Amino acid sequence: MKIKISLAQKVFDIFNAIFMLILMIIMFYPMWHVLMSSLSDSNMLLAHTGVIIKPLGFTYNAYKLMMKNPMILKGYLNTVYIVVVGVALNLLFTSVAAYVLSRTNVLYKKFFTILIILTMYFSGGLIPSYLLISKTLHMNDSYWALILPTLINTYNLIIMRTSFESIPVSLEESARLDGAGHWTLLLKIILPLSLPIIAVMTLYYAVAHWNSWFTANIYIKTRSKYPLQLILREILISNDTASMTSGTDAASEFSVSESVKYAVIVAATFPILCVYPFLQKYFVKGVMIGAIKG
Fold it and tell me: How far is CA 259 from CA 57, 113, 145, 237, 284, in A?
């Protein structure tokens, strides 16, 4: 049976397609601009004032200069460590908390749920958090100061809890008849059936850890422990490109530093962008499952 599409529907589809295309260009061009600028000749880049569609004098020189900074590689390693350890602990604690809140026979379940949701709207603030982490827990200048306070994100917890609640109770009852306990239920039944939401949580937590710089700026004092985003901030805001532009004459140092900044932005952004294609197929499904009955 052929479905007849009305004129209003056709107009809406055309308008929607044009709008989404414009929106895509608006979001994509800044990234393209940074990439093309990082591959451009520094002098030509500085003299250019218009839109950059292709590299201006194609060269890898900015990336070669960037690698002269020993803190770039060190920042990468520090950030990877924070992301891997942080995401692993995030998933462990969030899934355990979501499992508990998704059970129907939990005592004071509603009270604890409301208490957890309140943390989305009220917090202790920066100064109490700093005193707790640095003075009471003595985690100053430690990666644990970046990982432990953010073990569970309330929004992610609610999404995961809702996803767990959508799993049929009959599966749990069958497993319990076979002698399964809570850990067996969680690890062998709930989590394998919740791969889409696990993928979404992995993406959310990984992006949060990768992009985080403010917390590190407060607690990390030793420069060798700086994550990549702090190194990036130091280069962009403090204009600290001396280690990468050494040997360059004073007249060209400013233009070279500009192209190096673009290269550093690309280097800091590219790895996390590579994660999206692998998790994209789970993303929409995971969010939809987590949103049902929310």
Answer: 12, 50, 34, 15, 37
How many domains is the chain partitioned into structurally? 1
Q: What percentage of the chain reaches a pLDDT higher than 70?
A: 87
Nearest of 148, 149, 159 to residue 101 by alpha carbon: 159
User: What's the CATH number where 101 sits?
Assistant: 1.10.3720.10
**In-domain check, residue 128:** yes
Q: Residue 279 sits in which domain range?
A: 63-291
Q: Write the pLDDT tens digit of every residue in 262-282.
A: 888 888 888 888 877 777 666
Task: Report yes or no on 262 lying in a domain.
Answer: yes
